[in-house]
Amino acid sequence: MWISQQERVDILEVIGSANLKYAEPVYRVRRKDGTVATVGRKDIVLAEEELLIEELADILRRFPNPARHERYGFIMLSLMRKGVPFRQKLEARLPAKYGQQTMVLSEVG
Description:
The protein contains 4 helices and 3 strands, in the order βββαααα. It is an alpha+beta fold. Strands 1-2-3 form a 3-stranded antiparallel sheet, with no helix packed on it. Strand 2 and strand 3 (36-40) form a beta hairpin.
C-alpha cells in the first residue's frame, strides 16, 4: 500500500537493503495503470506488514495488558526494525480510547 497515494501497487525491486541499520530502502513499484515509480520506505506498507498491524490492533483491543501477550513484543520489534510506518494504520483500526496509547508506543520507534 502506497500510503500517500492511497494506492495498492506491486513491488518490482528494492533499491538498497531493507536490513541495513541506517540505510532507508527505496522500492520500485508498478502502479495499476502500468507506470513505474519509486517509493521511499516511510511511504509504503507491504501486505504481510498489514497483517501484523491488524494482529497488533487485535491484541491492543482484546487484552488489558497487551505487552504480556506472547506476540506483542515480536510484532512491535519487527515493525520498528523494518521502519514500517504503522502508526496511522494502527490508529485507524483502534477505537478512540486507544489512540493516545498507540501514539506513545509508536514514538518509541
